[in-house]
Amino acid sequence: MFRSEYADVPPVEPPLHEAVLARAVEPGGTPTPIDGATLTHEQVDRLHRRVAAALAGPGVRTGDVPAPHSPDTAALPLAFHAATRAGASVTTVHPPDTAEEAGRQLEDCAARWTVTVSPVPDTARRAAGPAGGTGEDPVCDSTPGHRSPKVLRRGLRAAHEEPS
Hints:
Layout: H1 16-21, E1 31-34, E2 37-40, H2 41-56, E3 66-69, H3 75-85, H4 99-108, E4 113-116, H5 121-128, H6 150-161
Parallel strand pairs: 3-4
Antiparallel strand pairs: 1-2
């Protein structure tokens, strides 16, 4: 694993999901536009908690490093904050990266799996393999051959169906 010449950065206190979403329920129904979808602050809070539970089911634990590999969609912040709530550290993968480029990143940070979307699951799976990936690379939408946290799909579908 690559080690920087600089000192390690200490963990953020409070955890990032708490720093960002701690007061999300206060504005309640205030809309939060994300990539053409509109979720309320309360929906983002509720959904990321459900997705965290869905990710913890297959074994996301403290110290794991999942890698959201998604364009800027509503799935990205939900997957990111859900993973940190589940205790994981997160590295985001730039969607246009090749499997080789993403694979080097995943190897450098010891990421074992990705959370991705239907346009790029094969790239994500190929990238995770050399890094010791588990083959459990969930997708945020529906893609044959890939596990998908149903709560995330339902939440994103609801967000796209609600009027802006």
